[in-house]
Amino acid sequence: MAKKHGRGQDSSGKGRGMGGGQKAQGPGGYCVCTTCGHRVPHERGEPCFELRCEKCGASMTRE
């Protein structure tokens, strides 16, 4: 009988969750607008991709 795996697990039994081994970038840095380039200091606990640019309303990314 074949071994059944739980949802989100591969044959090794390890999960296939988010992150893929990426590490957090730490508390410093900036959130940068993908359209106009406006920069604001990154705040811990608030992902840049959840922010909108104060100037143009576009999404932000981490620098």
Strand order of the largest sheet: 2-1-3
Q: How much strand?
A: 15-25%
Contiguous runs where pLDDT drops below 50 for at least 5 residues:
none
Q: Which descriptor suits the 3D outline?
A: elongated
Count the E strands: 3
The largest β sheet comes out as: 3 strands, antiparallel
Q: How large, in whole angstroms, is the Cα Rg?
A: 18 Å
Q: Give helix % range.
A: under 10%
End-to-end Cα distance, whole Å, is 50 Å
Number of helices: 0
How does the helix and strand content classify structurally?
mainly beta
Element order: H for helix, E for strand: EEE
* Overall mean pLDDT: 79
Can you tell me about this structure?
This protein has 63 residues and is mostly beta strands. A 3-stranded antiparallel beta sheet has the order 2-1-3, with no helix packed on it. The chain contains no helices and 3 strands. It has a domain of 33 residues.
Draw up the topology in text.
Layout: E1 30-33, E2 39-41, E3 60-62
Antiparallel strand pairs: 1-2, 1-3
